[in-house]
Design goal:
With 386 residues, this protein is an alpha/beta fold. It is 29% helix and 22% strand.
Length: 386
């Protein structure tokens, strides 16, 4: 009887269909959007993530990064090993050098200097873009990142005259946070347009024009600064020259002008627009490519490239999952009429979230620190962070 039972068990096992191997998904870039997609796809796919950093180093809240680096580091620089849904993801520390869309391989320069070839069934391009010293695609160790954060924060802390160049949310965040944290310093904001915060509702623009004035920031609209290409990649000092011939001396010059350089030099030209951004459909598929997707600052989804925000990662994860099952993608990414969200990060009196229609929702600092960041962001949005 025992032998018969064993024989039956063996034949039952042999008769069962072996579980299918998961399809291979390669994600290039593990910034904010790359991680958000990875944590939603890691159970459906065999995921490999190619990343120049071993931590998520967020591009958000630049003003807080420079003026309160300890707080910023706690919430916006997190080792990829700490994300629970990334435990089964193969992390490749290196930089994508090229892709072959025929053989479906990504060629990678590893941090060790060696080369590697990574195969894929589906490819997600979330490699981002550079637009300042705080965002780049250099292969970096954690120690190098830490040193950069501390060096820039110390330089700003010791400066007595600070000039911020740019009119977008990063520039406004730096100017306002600096003026509030270091009231003994003189802070000036220079930008080429008539109004701050292009793409935001007029009420939001007016709100921050008033807030900057109240904080003592000297605001100079219609003032275009001249720069060499290398200057944008560092926190500078010395002379700042403008198109009208004016020259000012500064202890710290923060370039936050939104001059975006997409991290797309590893991609074939036929996938890119004339500026080097990846051309996508509303489904966030790369145009003409069923198994290639793109999201975030590298993707030419709309003039403001707003798929880095606005819950686009949900659209992408849903559509990619359907494609893997042989189904057509059926969700579309539609950018909002105006930009929305936090502009300067949590302040002493709370966090202000500006809506598309110009309305403001304020959360108390206690609510932000005890509920929003640990529960909503880490546990719900990122699906668990140790």
């Amino acid at each position: 009887m025992v032998e018969k039972s064993r024989s039956f068990a063996a034949s039952s096992i042999q008769g069962q269909a072996m579980p299918q191997a998961k399809q291979k998904l390669v994600i290039i870039g593990m910034g904010d959007t790359g991680v958000l997609c990875a944590v939603r796809l890691s159970r459906q796919f065999d995921v490999t993530a190619i990343t120049t950093k071993t931590s998520l180093v967020s591009g958000q809240e630049l003003g807080m990064r420079l003026t309160n680096p300890a707080w910023w580091r706690k919430h916006y620089k997190i080792s990829l090993q700490r994300y629970r849904r990334l435990q089964g993801v193969r992390l490749v520390h290196g930089r994508a050098e090229s892709i072959d869309i025929v053989s479906q391989h990504v060629e990678v320069q590893l941090a060790s200097g060696e080369a590697s070839s990574v195969p894929y069934d589906y490819l997600l391009i979330a490699s981002g873009a550079s637009n300042g010293f705080w965002r780049n695609d250099r292969i970096s160790s954690d120690d190098e990142i830490e040193a950069g954060i501390e060096t820039n924060a110390e330089r700003l802390r010791n400066a007595r005259k600070i000039d911020v160049v740019g009119g977008g949310p990063s520039a406004v965040s730096v100017a306002l946070n600096t003026a509030r944290q270091f009231p003994e310093s003189t802070v000036a904001l220079h930008f080429s347009g008539q109004k701050l915060l292009r793409g935001y509702h007029a009420l939001t623009q007016d709100y921050y024009a008033h807030a900057l004035e109240q904080a003592g920031v000297k605001v100079h609209p219609n003032r275009r600064a001249l720069l060499a290409d290398h200057q944008i990649d560092q926190l500078g000092s010395g002379q700042l020259t403008f198109e009208d011939g004016a020259v000012v001396e500064s202890d710290a010059i923060v370039w936050a002008i939104g001059r975006m350089r997409p991290h797309s030099d590893f991609l074939p030209d036929e996938l890119l627009d004339e500026q080097g951004f990846v051309v996508t459909d509303l489904t966030l598929q790369v145009s003409g490519q069923n198994n290639l997707f793109a999201i975030g600052d590298v993707a030419a989804t709309d003039p403001l490239r707003s798929s880095a925000r606005n819950w686009a990662y949900r659209v992408l994860a849903h559509n990619l999952g359907r494609c893997a099952k042989g189904k057509e993608p059926n969700r579309m990414f539609r950018p909002p009429s105006h930009r929305w969200g936090s502009v300067v990060g949590p302040q002493d009196d709370g966090l202000r979230i500006h809506g598309q229609s110009g309305g403001i929702q304020r959360l108390t600092r206690r609510l932000v620190d005890r509920l929003l960041l640990p529960l909503v962001v880490r546990r719900i949005i990122y699906r668990g962070v140790d």
